[in-house]
Amino acid sequence: MTRRAIHRRTVLKGLGTALTLPWLEAMMPRKVLAASAVAKPPVRLGFLYIPNGVNVDHWYPTTTGFNFDLPTSLQPLAAFKDDINVISGLTHDKARSNQDGAGDHARAAACFLTGVQPKKSSSHIRTGVSIDQIAAEVLGNETRFPSIEIGCEAGRLAGQCDSEYSCAYSANISWKSPTTPMAKEVDPRQIFDRLFGSDNPNESRESAARRTMFQKSVLDFVKDDANRLQKKLGRTDQRKLDEYFTGVREIERRIELQNKPIDVGAQQLTRPTGIPRDYAEHVGLLSDLMVLAFQTDSTRVCTFMYGSEGSGRSYPFIGIPEGHHELSHHGSDPAKLEKLARIDQYNVTLFSQLLEKMKAAREGESSLLENSVIVFGGGINDGNRHNNENLPIIVAGQGGNTILTGRSLRYEYETPLCNLYLNMLDRVDIHLPRFGDSTGRLREFNV
Amino acid sequence: MHCVLGLLLITPWMAGDAKPMGTVATDPFQKQVLPVLEQYCIDCHSGDEPSAGLALDLFTSHDEAIKAGRTWAKVYDAIESKTMPPEDAEPLPAKDYAKVMNWIQKDVSYFNCTAERNPGRVTMRRLNKAEYNNTIRDLFGVGLRPADGFPADDVGHGFDNIGELLSMPPLLMEKYLEAAQLVSGRVVVTHEPQFSPVRPFKLKDFEGGNYNSPTSRGLYANGVMTHSLAINEDGEYLLRFGAWGNQAGKDPVRIEIRLDGKPVTAFDVEAVDGVPDEYRVPLQLKKGKYKLGVAFLNDHYDPQAPNPRQRDRNFYLSSAEVVGPMMRVVPNTLEVGSLQGGDRLSKQFDTRVMRKKGQKVVASIKVPETGYYLVRTRLAAQNVGGEPAKVDLRYANKVIDTVSVKADRSKFETSQAVLRLPAGESVIGWELANPYSDPKIADWNKKQRKAYIEGFEVIGPVFTADKDLPASHLKLTKDQPASRDAKEWRASAEKVLRPLLRKAYRRPIRQEDLDRLLELVEFGREQGETYDRTMQYAVQAVLVSPSFLFMVEGDTDDANHSTEISEHELAVRLSYFLWSSMPDAELSELADHGKLRSQLSQQVRRMLADPKAKSLVENFAGQWLQLRSLKAITPDKKVFPQFDESLRADMKKESEMFFTEVVQGDRDVLEFIDSDYTFVNDRLAKHYGLGGVKGSEFRRVALPKDSPLGGVLTQASVLTLTSNPNRTSPVKRGKWIMEQILGTPPPPPPPAVPELSEAKEAVEAATLRDRLAMHRAKPECSSCHNKMDPLGLAFENFDAIGQWRTKEGKFKIDASGTLPDGRSFDGPGSLKSILKEQPKRYFRCLSEKMLTYALGRGLEYYDRCTVDGVAEELASGDHRFSTLVLAVVHSDAFQRRGSEGSKGE
């Protein structure tokens, strides 16, 4: 039942446009506010994905260290230069063919947060648990949602995705288990409802308790059914049932956390009406929801795919009617390269709007951006060559004052991207000895 | 493909201690096959990076080699299709060809179709989105589409019903729970106290007992507390009260609810000492005046009890209220548009202000079905003058409801009205009925009477009369128990839930399944819920249980051999294949009696003729022909200003109607390639240049003999979805034919291959055809493009949105070409004839696609004989669609399930 309170349905005027959210501090859960008074606000992790590689000529700074030059495609980040690190040189070796033949797009996305070579199969999918899910496993205990997964493109509508790889690989970067991709939500309205929608002021405390009680007994019922079923199943089918049990447990956990969305107070947010046709508006709404989810401490981990890997989105609104993927095979054609740079710059502009919102969101003495680590990038360097070294990676936010930003960092070629992830998880006190094909931590990354 | 020469040719038989080749003549692999491979293949297919990922240097003996069934399947296909050896390499002489092919056919078991076949194992499939929606439709007879909001199902092997890929992330589990609540609230419509007026009673106003405080009134001995109750309207009410007891003695406090002294129900109050529980008693009341009584039945006093708290049993009431009359409401909040009109309070808020005559605030609402809906508006007012602001709710030029608004802006209040709305979109409005300006107040901002609207919501539908309730409701709640007696409830519930469970689980149910569900109902009864509400919970539980969400198939105990699936499992496979939904009563009954297998062919025919077979169009054709992608195609507006949403819809409609005709008319499947009819309306006819079609409704038209149209290849849908936004793509069209019609997908292009130049000079200098030819001249491109491009170029007379043309810019279109096998053609008609002349590949391709879809799993090398069997069946006779379906349904892969041990990947 989608029950919603009007008085709590709360309005974010201009949801979807660049805006500051000064009043949102009032909606912050007391937990976070109190925490910010005495201790530090929690660190949030975000992973944003852009498909098809970039125009490499306009992406990488020519200098390193502070006061680096912002290349054309990154110009929109000028106002946030002090809040980001532009990183070059990182590699995903496991996104390479490594004898698996074609299918670079599928591999690039599947490997991006897992660091694992995906199994080449149209149906028997297998890669690794992604870094966001490892973080969610720990950080998720504190929040209503261990993580959220959002994006602008739902799965493929028909046909093949990439070579003999299942479409699951190119459409997901978050993997709960090596065989379970975390499906993403694309409809802002549904995300809104999920985050803020289940509270009803007409309902008395007793009725709410009653509803919860019956929800629990419904779950008890289905677990019994699943248990009976389990005894009859073979190995592979058991795995499907395991996914089922995990889902049930997650809902139970949320019920234990009283199933109460954050009281966003008397402020009002407008419930988005659906999927906007306009790409920028879509990214904008999803960015707003990501910010809100962080601000209200509904979750601390978010993955966000601007597009599925290999996306053929056209950008007619900036004069590019051709599909992105097709253009990315530019064959050094200057006209195509120029268009690619414009697409890159456009996506970076959308990213900068997210940073603007995060910077404007105050958390006590600091901003949400200061308390976050946001990776923005992709698993392919040059769309024409499909190469996986020197990946385009920007890391924004200071991770709770533990990351020195404002720099261009260049690492030796072949330094695994997974090394960065180790550094990132250190920021949230998860100290992994290794991850994917990591060889150690990035130097000079931390404060 | 790239051939990496000179890489690692250190194969075992070449190592120092290997015997010379001639001496190992007893091993058929070493004797017949290896020398051929060595001469023609191993240069490229060996080492660390074998071409196409296919290494042929790994086998030394026959016994070892035959285990690699998958490898030989690839070799067989590549050689048979003449893809290998590549053009620039030494061709394979017929003698050597025969040696390899014979060995594979004879000795690799998956090629030996007389042996026992491995039917494969379908990983337990969950319902995908389409199947979920259809199953809900058929289970309850309601038109909800709850799965539309579920995350997209992942696609593999070209379809979204592949069991292995249908994973269940936690998000989906959440969606299932929500959907179950939504569906249960729609199929059983309960009284919803949350939308009904509440009348609280003051404890002070009761008679009898001792008044202690506003939250405590006690009875210390058997007795009764009463309160008057005036009911103005017949209907369903709910008495809700808080109570607790001093619990002494072995029994809890027992109380009785009375109306005019007559007992209604009695129950135990187990809450203790100052911590009240909520208790609720549903009451059906007629208009009139009543005396409501709460009686304490079992006083207990034992001054000797050692624990002083255990000596005296007393009863306390902490609150009491009557809710009602209650409406039956589907508690579903619908989508509404934002408020328009009036003055906006501020930029930040959506709140609207009304202060002048005729100043309306309006909003649109969209409802799924005609019926009554609750419109709840959040209102506040700036009240000046003698009376409060009055706000009219208006719909269709009528005032539906007028509300006096007393609340000021610090605290908005909700007003509620019931409104009958037609399905679809409507506009409702609000207006201040009594504008007023107080001359005594100087501040212009404060002198006006104003009404504020903060927002509104629409909930429902609402059922004001029981006779209007949906059929599902009447069916699920028809056996109302006469009292709250546990046995009676169980008996009533069982009558309804047994058949529901049978249908929902799609198999005979076990007593334990039913018992467990009845326990849930019993729990609801104990908790004081209405019978209808407990039915709602039961429906929810069923819809979230794995037996509903998954298509479960039992396993055999025999680890080495496959087994025939049960009749019920067969019914499920059939119905999800042909209907994307659950089996109907006839299939279930036949399965119950073990008669489905014996009537299989006639059942398949019945199912294909059923309207539900439309799902084959939506789901099979939508993915095979990739019609689903059409909605994501965005032709360049500058090049094709005539392309709009209606044309897009028309294109899709033509293909869907065409496919439906082949299915339901049981036509020759070669009509997919070419036909002498199609379906158009006036718009599409104009698009194609067909004359004599008037009106927007679609109809079947016979095509002129010389028409290039006919079949799916020349339908605007397929031609558009295989084009670029601004021009045709012979490569994409050729690739599409190879993938979807011939079943020989070309390998993906190697990276770093330049695409065609789209620069203005290039486009003006030569036709696309010539530019492609230049591209093709490069050796790394030619082996694949020699196959793809000619196929696509045959359709160059159709532009990127499927319109006929004779020129491309200033150049005349040349649609002629030669296939790699030497056959030449000129234009779409002759290419279609070529495809039809030798339809073997097409039959095989269609068989593969249909098997994949029917089984819900990717095909494996061991399915070769099954595919061959289906394709041969289809090739014989008149290639009717039903022949294909029947061959699939009768195949081992469909009828049997492999053992756990036999599972291949």
How would you describe this protein?
- The complex is a heterodimer of chains A (about 450) and B (about 900).
- Chain A is about 35% helix and about 15% strand.
- With about 450 residues, chain A is of the alpha/beta class.
- In chain A, strand 4 (about 175) and strand 5 form a beta hairpin.
- Chain A is globular and about 65 Å long.
- Mean pLDDT of chain A is about 85; it is low at about 1-40 and about 265-270.
- Helices cover about 35% and strands about 20% of the residues of chain B.
- In chain B, helix 10 crosses helix 11.
- The longest helix of chain B has 20 residues, at about 485-505.
- The radius of gyration of chain B is 37 Å and the shape is globular.
- The interface between A and B is large, with 107 and 115 residues.
Number of helices of chain B: 28
* Dominant shape of chain B: globular
Q: Give the oligomeric state of the chains in this entry, treating copies of one chain as homo and distinct chains as hetero.
A: heterodimer
**Range of strand content of chain B:** 15-25%
Q: What's the N-to-C terminus distance of chain A?
A: 48 Å
As a whole number of angstroms, the C-alpha radius of gyration of chain A is 22 Å
For the largest interface in this structure, which chains are involved and how many residues does each contribute? A-B, 107 and 115 residues
Summarize the helix and strand pattern of chain A as letters: HEEHHEHEEHHHHEEEHHEEEEEH
Structural class of chain A: alpha/beta
Mean pLDDT over the residues of chain B: 88
Largest sheet of chain A: 7 strands, mixed
Taking the sheet with the most strands of chain B, its summary is: 7 strands, antiparallel
How much helix, percentage-wise, in residues of chain A? 25-40%
